[in-house]
Amino acid sequence: MTISNERCGEILKILINRQEPITIDEIANKLKVSNRTIRNDMQKIQELIKNSKDIKIIKKPRVGVWINANLKGKKLLESIISSKDAYVQPYTSSLRKRYIIKRLLLSNDSVTMKDLGNELYVSRITIYNDFEEVEKWLAKYNLKLKRKKNYGVEVIGDEISWRKAVSDLITDFRKESKQKNNIHILKDEQFQDVYNQSQIKIKDVFKNVDLVKIQSILLQVEQNMDYKLTDESYSCLVIHIAIAIERLKINKPVELPYEQINDLSKKEEYQIARQISKKIKDELSIQFTTPEISNLTLHILGSKMQYNKNNSVDMIKNIDTNIIDLAGEIILLIGNILSVDFTSDNKLFIGLVLHLRTAINRMKYNLNIRNPLLKDIKNNYPSVFGASWASSVLFEKYFGIKVTEEEIGYISIHIGAALERLNKKTRVVIVCGSGIGTAGLVAVRLEREISGLDIVDITSVHDIKNIRTNEFDLIISTLPFEYPSKPVVQINPIVTQDDLDIVKKYLINIENTRRFRKNNMSEIKNQLFMQELILPKIEVSNKTELIRELCNILIKKGYVENGFLDIALERERITSTAVGKGVAIPHGSHKYVKRPVILVATLKEPIEWSNGKVDVVFLLALKFENKEEIRYFFKHFYSMLDDETVLSSIRIKNTSKEIYETIIGSYKME
């Protein structure tokens, strides 16, 4: 006796080990298949044992099913089960989705739901339900499912979109393979071994493409480039070229507008793409069309460069001066928001310039990029991410482009690395009006009780103007006074434990949580936040509905023009405005803002927002007259968003007045 499939053996195991009846539904749930599938398998088992006197399967309506078997029958069942390999659990919902996407993208013909159901051991209804998630994934690439009765399902869309989707699919497979086996495409002699090991993931796409030859061609061309590619960019280019070759073999070329081809042909990278295409023609007998060369140019433009401190000046000497200026402004803006002086960090400047060079090309030409650290950055460093997001206004100013959250995440990484490079000690100036003896006593007490302090000077209120602001981070004063651009902590001349606790509180997250003086922000905050524009505990089903509802309120009240809504929705399609901790900050373009305001909404129930939940929303309609206003606003705003106490208070308030008082009150905190 042999059973027809491994699942039948698993069903028998369940029945043998049960001391009481079990329902068909319970078995189906255990094996993650449909009720119908289990019933069909039970019929196969019944057919298998029908001539045995030692085994009997009993079914009783509303009770369940069980096995009666004597010792001989049990041994027979055990031998039947062992004759088959171990049962493999069916795909989970997420794995089914990935399998279906892979199957549809890589199939030359349409695929039926029946075929997919048979391959995944689930019903057609299950496959039909999975299609909803599949369609969401494809929509990110402007691809759609075409369903035709008695024909099947296929993916439709333009060639470039198809290639982007397949490239990301392969990238996901490679990342998974790397996690399990430490496998990835390498720029050395290990490539062949790595390729052989990872074929199981990419062979479905590259059926007749010599990846080793592509690698060799790319290495040859790279020798003549002014810069070297990172391993990640190198691997992505290998995959892109392989996909292009595979598609050209079946007459599936890309098409690009003439204007874009003309623009790209003037780039230095176009000549690199031509060299690669010529070698591909000579060595692989594949002719790249002009649009294919232009498309390859796009990917080279979007490729990251390796940082080399020995030739860093040479690496940026030919880079667009607008990019260099943008990097400088980003560093100043974020530094002001975080109250950190980055101006002497040359590594940050060079690294950011090189990143922006390719990032701007990616955004300009709509090249997608993955940032696997984005979620961790948002959750663990919300102030750094928020401060980096503030630079989005500069991207629009210099290049007229909308920055994506993935790119903001990478900027955050550069800033985070710069923070790590800073002296871990906080530079402090002590201001004392009671004489040098008292000041010295204060300094000794603070240094003894608090690690991480670097007391750079002891001075008076009158003389502090002689100390440059970039030489210290914090002022500790024994008398009340205000300083325009640095936080001031007031303590007693005879330092108490309470004083020490106050200072420590400032030191914990001084880079992210320092507050602005209230007189710097009072005028701005009173203009931006209004009780009538605070909506507590509203009910919405999704972020699009919410953004539309909030923008329409501002339009009707005359704060913004109609175009504001379209830009806010478009921006959200391009990149999520969720910044972590359950907060989102959707916004439109400043050119449609008549009067700067912030509309605040808390949600009765959290909604999905970029793979997370959001229940506090600030709709930003901002229009600042100068850079100082931008810095003042974002510096405090992100300090507020980083304060769990303030956010929790906003969430629990039930009236507009209470939320307004919480927000305004947060600006008064020192």
Q: Tell me the number of strands.
A: 13
The strand line-up of the biggest sheet is 9-12-13-11-10
Q: Structurally, how many domains make up the residues? A: 6
CATH topology call of the largest domain: Mannitol-specific EII, Chain A
Helix coverage percent = 55-70%
CATH superfamily of the largest domain: Mannitol-specific EII, Chain A
Report the sheet-strand fraction: 5-15%
Low-confidence stretches: 85-89, 177-200, 511-523
Task: State the secondary-structure class.
Answer: alpha/beta
CATH architecture of the largest domain, by name, is: 3-Layer(aba) Sandwich
Question: How many H/I helical runs?
Answer: 30
Taking Cα atoms only, what radius of gyration do you get, to the nearest Å?
Answer: 32 Å
Terminal CA distance reads 80 Å
Task: Tell me about this structure.
With 670 residues, this protein is α/β, with parallel strands linked by helices. The protein has six domains: 6-82, Orthogonal Bundle (Arc Repressor Mutant, subunit A); 93-157, Winged helix-like DNA-binding domain superfamily/Winged helix DNA-binding domain (Arc Repressor Mutant, subunit A, Orthogonal Bundle), CATH 1.10.10.10; 161-301, no CATH class; 312-413, Orthogonal Bundle (PTS-regulatory domain, PRD); 426-509, 3-Layer(aba) Sandwich (Rossmann fold), CATH 3.40.50.2300; 519-666, Mannitol-specific EII, Chain A (3-Layer(aba) Sandwich). Helix 5 (93-105) packs across helix 7 (124-139) and helix 29 packs antiparallel against helix 30. The radius of gyration is 32 Å and the shape is globular.
